[in-house]
């Protein structure tokens, strides 16, 4: 019997038990069965939770890019590895086979080496969602350079801060990029960033928009002529299992971005295993994750996880709203997508639009639909489940983090019964616990607490680049001996987990701990409400009171605001309790969001408190202009 694929619920429980009782045996077997290693490990893992030191598959030698590509060439050489769907639907999609991928990544690897990139060097990749992004990432992995992909929506200052933090010696970018009806001058942003980055020696530039861009002598190089002259084969570097694979900065919802370092062997094993199980991927399937490769979701579940399984994975350059709100559904029909993985923020924005957009296209090919990035509210869950999944496709609500490398808590489709807004059960190998304020583990069910993981897993981040002390303090000191996720969760009567939001989003009102998610769920059920966010502010009697920021749908905008406030509070009273009624409700046209679509609550909190002095690092905000509007409208 293979340990790699979870077959049914009984098998899940059996595998889960094995993974807890005999973790060495469990991971040894999975790693042994499914990958190509130059040399096997001496030890499956070693760890020290106090010092935050972790090693997986110690002593093993491996190359992850070789496992993503070369390993498949015999059997799947002519299979499509990547479908590239351009921003403009009239531009033809590209089907890149595993053979093509091998040739392209080999060329890139040879070019990087010719340009002097060596094992352990950091390479910053700032590219739009085009195939070259995949080639560049995999070429780094192939030669043993550490990639640090920065989402190509970040500003010059956010980019230079990340480049300097990891001291990248090369930046890979393009002349520009397309996003909806906009053309973005990426090279211009890079030029501005590189004025402040003494560490960068070379900028390799890919052509995408063919706009004229200035090229700085001695620094900037067009990559295409180099690729044309490079050999289409390459001998992959032999890497230690614990050699660094990449640095990725967290999305920055809560403060100064952290450069999470991931290493090779454990990350490979865990992303492959979780991709296979969470998406129930089968050989002929076409899989699509709409995230950007600049986020961990794109790293683990557009590139590494799918390619390690020899899958067909889509790289989508565009946005859900261009040319119109049916783009996602049109792409699903066009490529007969079987697994579709997106974020609640995208679902909510599409649910606001007419249902005709969805119904125009056939979504019959879909087998599994997934969600990631933030808690999915009840209304969005049902909309997604009913209209996209047709109540037929299991909806996997996957909870995980940049730091965890791979999906931690999620239903396994066709195995774990789903429950709206619940990430449900931990995957094998993952041991979640809930902790109370006194740092005790909370036993039993129907409880809430702060979510920790009490045992290491293969793909956990190994450190914060250049700051192990911060890594230790942020994740391993709040609850000694455990990994602290920063998220709160509730465990229901059967042991299912629901992530209730970040722990610092719990607001204590008159001594009651209120999570923001259920209250926002109630508000969002009002037919005139599009989206909402609540925060606490100091109150003389209650300790804290609740302040709500509410975006109205077009239909709600003409309504009397005081009546709306009453109705919203009525809904909250009914669904959560009178204790959770909002003291103040401000109607806004938008909420401050990070570029990955998450609400930056610390700014809302400051505004509600009336403290306009210091909003902290806002360089990762998508819509900084909204901050002033909200400030001006403060109640
Ligand atoms: P930063 O750590 O810099 O503040 P971030 O936490 O937003 O940024 P990510 O690592 O991309 O950066 O996001 C992980 C977080 O997203 C989780 O800790 C959790 O709060 C939230 N999250 C992700 N998936 C889910 C999910 N399925 N349900 C609920 N919350 C989720
Ligand atoms: Mg985080």
Describe what this molecule looks like in 3D.
The protein is of the alpha/beta class and about 625 residues long. It folds into two domains: about 10-430, Rossmann fold, CATH 3.40.50; about 510-635, GMP Synthetase, Chain A, domain 3 (2-Layer Sandwich). It is built from 20 helices and 30 strands. It has a seven-stranded mixed beta sheet with strand order 5-4-17-16-18-19-20, sandwiched between helices. A five-stranded parallel beta sheet has the order 7-6-8-11-12, with helices on both faces. It has a four-stranded antiparallel beta sheet with strand order 21-22-24-25. Helix 1 packs across helix 2, helix 7 (about 155-165) crosses helix 8 (about 185-195) and helix 17 (about 515-525) crosses helix 18. The model has no long low-confidence stretch (mean pLDDT about 95). The chain binds adenosine-5'-triphosphate and magnesium ion (MG). Adenosine-5'-triphosphate (ATP) binds near residues 250, 251 and 401.
What's the arrangement of secondary structure elements?
Blueprint: H1 9-21, H2 23-34, E1 43-48, E2 53-58, E3 61-62, H3 64-68, H4 73-76, E4 80-85, E5 94-97, H5 98-114, E6 122-126, H6 131-143, E7 146-149, H7 156-166, E8 170-174, E9 177-179, E10 182-184, H8 186-194, E11 202-206, E12 220-222, H9 223-228, E13 239-240, E14 244-249, E15 259-263, H10 265-278, E16 286-289, H11 296-308, E17 312-316, H12 327-335, E18 339-342, H13 344-351, H14 356-359, E19 368-371, H15 378-388, E20 395-397, E21 432-435, E22 447-453, E23 463-464, H16 468-476, E24 483-491, E25 497-502, E26 507-509, E27 512-514, H17 516-524, E28 529-539, E29 543-552, H18 561-575, E30 584-588, H19 601-609, H20 625-632
Parallel strand pairs: 4-17, 6-7, 6-8, 8-11, 11-12, 16-17, 16-18, 18-19, 19-20, 29-30
Antiparallel strand pairs: 1-2, 3-13, 4-5, 9-10, 14-15, 15-23, 21-22, 22-24, 24-25, 26-27, 28-29
Adenosine-5'-triphosphate binds next to β24 and β25.
